[in-house]
Amino acid sequence: MRKYIEIVTDLEERILGGEIKPGQRLPSIRQLSETYQCSKSTIIRGFADLKRRHLIYSIPQSGYYAVGRKDPASIEDSKPFVDFSSAAPDPSVFPYLDFQHCINKAVDTYQDDLFRYGTAQGLPTLLRLLQKQLQSYQVFTDVQHLCITSGVQQSLAILGLMSFPNHKQKVLVEQPTYHLLIQLLELHQIPTLTIKRTASGIDFQELERLFQQESIKFFYTMPRFHNPLGTSYSQKEKKQIAYLAQKYDVYIIEDDYLADLEHDTKADPIHTYAHSHVIYLKSYSKILFPGLRVGVAVIPAPLQEAFYAYKKLMDIDSSMLSQAALEIYVKSGMFDRHREKIRLSYTGKMEQVNKVFRKWQQHPGVVEAPLNGGVHTYIKTRARMSETNVKTNLLKRGIIIDTMDRYYMKFSEKELLWRINVSYVEETRIEKALGEVAEVLQL
Questions:
Q1: What element of type H or E holds 117?
Q2: Segment 218-254, tens digit of pLDDT
Q3: Measuring CA to CA, how many Å separate 128 from each of 123, 165, 173, 208, 287?
Q4: What is the largest CA-CA distance in the chain?
């Protein structure tokens, strides 16, 4: 399996990178089997994949040849807009081929087991594998505390609806915060309180007052690469949140959805400091595919019975095929390789943003332009400009930008913050596009 992936990936990179020119004949099956020290059937399978994806074509009695490809600049130019509003990952970095192989392998390996009902907790072999993987994020827990979910959104739905052992009723969220959680809370009319979060963090005196005086069952937070602000809590702030949670018996929902983009090995999660009061959530959708819908939740013992009961009623179990494919993808080492590729891609993009933001920070018209990692950041200007005019003028220039209004509860006071997300934007277009943004914002 690994040899097959290695061969296909290598040939793909050589073709797309220009080492093998359009129309150039590829080495023969026999030559490649000797080069890669594998069977001829493995090379034939690889050629079939490359041919299906229109990277090569065959001529009977002659061999296989590389197909001409557009150069990167023309591919980028084919996208009509620079979209700073979309949080969707760039499809060009999705590991389509690798994951397709894992799905095929999962069907071959598990066969009938994939089409029977599993357990509410998840595929046992995947649970054991993810327990080890979570240790690399400094999340240490036993397998019985893990649950595979259909993404973070399902975990939030369950936790929002179920009762907690602290017998409290209200939910506390930061403002701004994840917009789909806001929709969930408002749809189910769950009593909700808010606390303001800025580039400087939160007011810990206010947090303690809320924990002490209000009936808060959980506080939802994104300590790392906050969505939509993009900022991260310091270790001191994480420890303080953990301390207050244990002191006042408030549970913390720690949404660590971009943990895979972290470069700082010392950036431990809140779970490290208060595992008894922290529900740790990790998503695989952002790093792989949005449609994968697989996440893992670390559930403290007092919450497990209720959580599993709700989950079983919602979907019986998360997709067994997705779980089995993810297990093979992680176990084979392909996940680690892809994670590094994604890190490098997003790091390069944010470096372009930060390069521009360093200049903006010197402008008297700029209040905030934080230098972040991850994929999110924002700009706050001194002058309050018409949202409609700004969006319309930028759209005429081929740029889409948005505010953060939908990241606030309906009753909350909203700040005019211009959101910048680089997930769907090519690195080479960022600096020029932000220059256009600066002109429209009169910076």
A1: none
A2: 999 999 999 999 999 999 999 999 999 999 999 999 9
A3: 9, 27, 32, 37, 20
A4: 81
What does residue 26 show for φ and ψ, rounded to 5 degrees? -80, 155
For 187, phi then psi, to 5°, come to -60, -45
Helix 29-36 vs helix 40-52: crossing angle, to nearest 10: 110
For residue 27, the SS3 value is coil
Q: Is the pLDDT of residue 1 over 70?
A: no
The residue among 377, 429, 431 whose CA lies nearest residue 404 is: 377
Which of 434, 374, 367 lies closest to 227, judged by CA?
374
- Greater confidence, 12 or 302? 302
For the entire predicted model, the pTM comes to: 0.81
Q: What's phi and psi for 399, nearest 5 deg? A: -125, 135
Q: Please provide the size of the chain in residues.
A: 443
Distance CA 162, CA 137 (A): 27
> pLDDT (tens digit, 9 = 90+) per residue, 49-73?
787 767 787 777 778 888 755 454 4
Residue 193 CA to residue 219 CA, distance in Å, equals 9
